[in-house]
Amino acid sequence: MDDNKGSPYRQRRDMEAGGSRSDDVYDDSSDTFYIPSKNAPIERLKRWRQAVLVLNASRRFRYTLDLKKEEEKQQTLRKIRAHAQAIRAAHLFQNARGPTNGAIIPPIPNGDFGISQDQLVVMTRDHSSDALEEYGGVEGLSKLLKTNLDKGIHGDDADLLARRNVFGSNTYPRRKGRSFWMFLWEAWQDLTLIILIIAAVASLVLGIKTEGIEEGWYDGGSIAFAVILVIVVTAISDYRQSLQFQNLNEEKRNIHLEVVRGGRRVEVSIYDLVVGDVVPLNIGDQVPADGVLISGHSLAVDESSMTGESNIVHKGSRDPFLMSGCKVADGSGTMLVTSVGINTEWGMLMASISEDTGEETPLQVRLNGVATFVGIVGLTVAVFVLAVLLIRYFTGHTKDPNGIVQFRAGKTSVSDAVDGAIKIVTVAVTIVVVAVPEGLPLAVTLTLAYSMRKMMADKALVRRLSACETMGSATTICSDKTGTLTLNQMTVVEAYAGGKKIHPLDSASHLPSTLVSLLIQGIAQNTNGSVYTPEGGDEVEVSGSPTEKAILQWACKLGMNFDAVRSESSIIHVFPFNSEKKRGGVAIRLPDSQVHIHWKGAAEIVLASCTQYMDSNDQLLAMDEEKMAFYRKAIEDMASGSLRCVAIAYRTCDPKDIPSDEEQLTKWALPEDELILLAIVGIKDPCRPGVKVAVQLCQNAGVKVRMVTGDNLQTARAIALECGILGSNGDATEPDLIEGKSFRALSDAERVQIAEKISVMGRSSPNDKLLLVQALRKKGHVVAVTGDGTNDAPALHEADIGLAMGIQGTEVAKESSDIIILDDNFASVVKVVRWGRSVYANIQKFIQFQLTVNVAALIINVVAAVSSGDVPLNAVQLLWVNLIMDTLGALALATEPPTDHLMHRSPVGRREPLITNIMWRNLLIQAAYQVTVLLILNFRGRSILNLQHDDSAHANKVKNTLIFNAFVFCQIFNEFNARKPDEFNVFSGITKNHLFVAIVAVTLVLQVLIIEFLGKFASTVRLNWKYWIISIVIAAISWPLALVGKLIPVPETPLSKYFSGPYRRCTRILRGRQRAP
What H or E segment, with its residue span, contains residue 433? Predict the structure, then answer.
């Protein structure tokens, strides 16, 4: 099997195993809260977990990689693979001992079918050739399964139902997602909430004891109710996110493939596959179920997903068994499905491992770092407030609203002293709840879940969470041409045959009969497509790749009877189309034992191998310089008209030169010299409508679009001009326009030097694409790359964001990608860029909003506690503020849809500080305003509000209620400011975000209810209309204040640089503390 060592497929797997990806370009080992966007080392993942300050680990780490479960998953995989290998080894040992002497039980009928499911499972699992032979080989097995090897099953509803009833469906039992009650239980795990519940219970007991059950339960009961409300709302939010992720995971697993049913190829979901189906397999496909090979050409399968061994296994008559979950590494073939779902080894493996072990994203980890830093500050402040309040209380410096000292040593009862201390502890713990932004890292998950759901509607399926946010940093997109920039709706519009241009194109009457016969023979046999002719004589149905379909449709117009032509000769050997050689070939044996070898591929490459051509009189003439120049000019003219040029040629071969041994035949290289040119066709693939606008949008956003295509350089140039990738003919010179072979011939240093200048690369191989991606990344670019073929896998893996095509993409390409573009449209790629930037922008909005609340609440309570021994915002009020800030605020701001404004900015630098100078300016202005106004109200509120003559206790309650009400209204109004941190119009597009409007409305209604009707719970009193107007005015001033603030210029140097020292010292202390025994 060593001949596969150089295959691109193997290269992809080695890269995954060895980590040859150049992530070290961005690596920063000194930053604990930094992980690379792909393939982060386990040690790096462990390090940030050890350094983080976390109050509720089960919730905080829910959407990160579960390192323990991942290890358990790998152990399970190893056990199952070892089990499979043991069975296989036992069978091989038994075969080595000789025949089974009739040990195989003849087929046992089951329902309408001539064989039982158990017999099929044993045969496939054990790779038992003896059993297959006993059942009559593939032909006999197909009869037992009532399948026609050419036409497949009937495929009507009754047939499919009968097969599912007898043999099962192609699904496997999955572990159920966590129920709502599990999320509720996890939300309880927060240490601060547990302390608050304990304090609430203690306060409840003491209150009932001292004041009786009618009045004494309010303090403790209100805190308990507030905590329960926080827990329930948190659990509901988390549960909704979980459901979204489950739906997206289901979409990822739903592979679509072609099967042959009723003589025609139809596309079905992998879940709809049944035993007896005939499935065509091509390079890059996933084997969808267990089965046996019907026929194959150079078919090689990578079975490492099942066996753990990295060898590529060739499949043929000696080893016809195919295992579900494996990938086709090379060649093509058709298989007969024998087992599906839980009856396959892949199904058993999938059913036994945990579905999802999670994944953390770089932004999530960075936010954990921010939360840790803010949390350490908040924790310090809370401890300070606790110490100050306890000292003041027990030294007799704390007075009640009536001016009476609350604690007198030796006179105050123990229960009163404990009750007072509990209230102080409750306030301090609640400050911790507000100060430690536990919901900050989870806001990433919320916005990612929202974005991923919306991206599905925009035809983009996200396979890897971090790709969403990385796309916002993309500085360049390396795009394929065919199907991405073009429609992938190909038609033959020009053709040259018989030494001249054909006109009319669709008629064979003016072409010589031998030429037409050979041309049709080559097209019909050298294809992966098929032609289905309905019995009623309706229009034929052509399937296959767009290029294959275009050529087959042209051949049908020339009079091709697809089935008849294919039945006239037998295929000896196939050389599948190769993106390195840009051509594919087939050797066929005619009824008179002649052997023809047909080639089809890139026009100038096939033409270079031609030494003769067939003229209009069926005569073979030498390909002299004049004729060679004629054909080259024809290719150039067609390519300049943005046509894809394909040449069709053939040659004869001496039957004696063909290996007779099957193993040697699989390694036989088809002769590719001394070809006879039959035709050159020009295939039109129009540009997608709107692609020029999409390219322009990217360029305005600072994202350079580069076209990397296997097509002729002139074709690539014409399409690039049409799409706007090249501005004019003046741009179409090297190195803007370069051929793949020229680029790969350069040294590493030279490639890095010119990579940024390249706009179009023509006649590129997948390896050229990989080299370009590596060169661009070395220059510091964040690279997104599109790909659809198996050979694109290394480039998709190496790029920062790999974008696979959903329609034309192979399963290997999709597995190597981060995002699948479901409609293969470049405009959808641009939408992904918008969503990537939106994720980052929404998180920044939420950070600005949350930190403003953090700073204001902390300063107000600290200053009040130190100066007067009392705090204006009590535990229940702070918990309500925390709910607005954490859950409702995240829902409102983290789900803002993307705007056009995002595409007028430069890409977000991946190491750019999360809190920009603009955000610092905005939050400090708002926090300073809130703190100033509310502290003035705290210390001078009674005189300002004319409450000097009121009862002292009532006046204090009115003042504190007004402070609480104004503070909440400030946050509601500041949510609008946070929507547009750098724009003057904060109301722009607000009507499009119904969730934001709904959350603001709900918050307002609940605030009114709390003040007017829940005074006992929140320790508030009803406010008259004047105080409501004062609250609204105080909050409304934040809007013009924000407007004026945005006129203040900010320095270039990020403020975060000044905090990096203490921040890193904090994380080092935490890491050392957590590692200490």
Answer: helix 414-435
Q: What pairs with residue 123 in β-bridges?
A: none
Kindly state whether residue 570 falls inside one of the protein's structural domains: yes
What pTM did the predictor assign? 0.80
Q: How far apart are the first and last CA of the chain?
A: 51
Question: How much is the pLDDT for 581?
Answer: 81
Say whether both 817 and 737 belong to one domain: yes
pLDDT value at residue 551: 95
Task: Let me know if residue 528 belongs to a domain.
Answer: yes
- Which helix (H) or strand (E) segment holds residue 928: the answer is helix 917-944
Does 712 share its domain with 733? yes
How far apart are the C-alpha atoms of 32 and 686, rounded to whole Å? 50
Spatial separation of the C-alpha atoms in residues 90 and 102, rounded to whole Å: 18
Q: What is the pLDDT, as a whole number, of residue 38?
A: 72
Helix/strand/coil for 210: helix
- Return the pLDDT at 24: 42
The verdict on residue 623 lying in a domain is: yes
| Per-residue pLDDT, 242 | 78
777 and 25 in contact (C-beta within 8 Å)?
Answer: yes
Q: Is residue 625 part of a domain?
A: yes
Which listed residue (272, 419, 480, 711) is catalytic?
A: 480
Per-residue CA distances from 872 to 377, 641, 963, 1035 (Å): 21, 76, 7, 18
Instruction: For CA atoms 455, 457, 461, 465, give the dihedral sign.
Output: positive
Same-domain check for residues 114 and 147:
yes
Could you report the per-residue pLDDT of 991-1017, keeping only the tens digit for each?
888 889 999 999 999 999 989 988 888
* Residue 252 near residue 462 (C-beta atoms within 8 A): no
Do 677 and 634 reside in the same domain of the chain?
yes
| Per-residue pLDDT reduced to its tens digit, 412-432 | 777 778 877 887 887 777 777
CA distance 657 to 28: 60
Q: 161 and 310, same structural domain?
A: yes
Q: Which of 329, 353, 377 is the last residue of a domain?
A: 353
**How far is residue 28's CA from residue 16's CA, in Å, rounded to a whole number?**
21
Q: Domain holding 694: CATH number?
A: 3.40.50.1000
Eight-state DSSP code of residue 113: B
Paired tokens of 967: 């503070």
Same domain, 550 and 469: no
Q: Which of the listed residues 666, 684, 702 is the one where a domain comes to its end?
A: 684
Q: What is the CATH number of the domain that holds 341?
A: 2.70.150.10
Instruction: State how far the Cα of 24 lies from the Cα of 899, in Å rounded to an integer.
Output: 33
SS3 content of the chain, % helix, strand, coil (to 5): 55, 15, 30
HSE value, Cβ hemisphere, 13 Å, CA-based, for 515: 27
Please report how many Cα atoms fall inside a 13 Å half-sphere around the Cα of residue 1040, on the Cβ side.
Answer: 4
pLDDT of residue 310: 64
Q: DSSP letter for 61, please.
A: T
Instruction: Mention every residue, 6+ apart, whose C-beta is less than 8 A from residue 876.
Output: 222, 223, 226, 1017, 1018, 1019
Q: What pLDDT, on the 0 to 100 scale, is given for residue 1061?
A: 56
Which residue, among 449, 405, 429, 332, has the nearest Cα to 874 in the 3D structure?
Answer: 429
* Residue spans of alpha helices (H) in 290-408: 304-307, 345-352, 362-394
Q: So what's the pLDDT on residue 622?
A: 94
591-611 per-position pLDDT tens digit: 999 999 999 999 999 999 999
Residues 658 and 729 in one domain: no
Residue 89's pLDDT is: 65
How many domains are there within the chain?
Answer: 3
Which domain, by its residues, includes 601? 491-684
Q: Is 480 a catalytic residue?
A: yes
Q: Dihedrals φ, ψ of 299, to 5°?
A: -75, 125
Give pLDDT, residue 633: 95
Residues 641 and 539 placed together within one structural domain of the fold: yes
Q: Which helix (H) or strand (E) holds 975?
A: helix 952-979
Q: What is the CATH number of the domain that holds 636?
A: 3.40.1110.10
Residue spans of the chain under pLDDT 50? 1-27, 100-102, 354, 1070, 1074, 1076-1077
Number of H helices, E strands in the chain: 41, 26
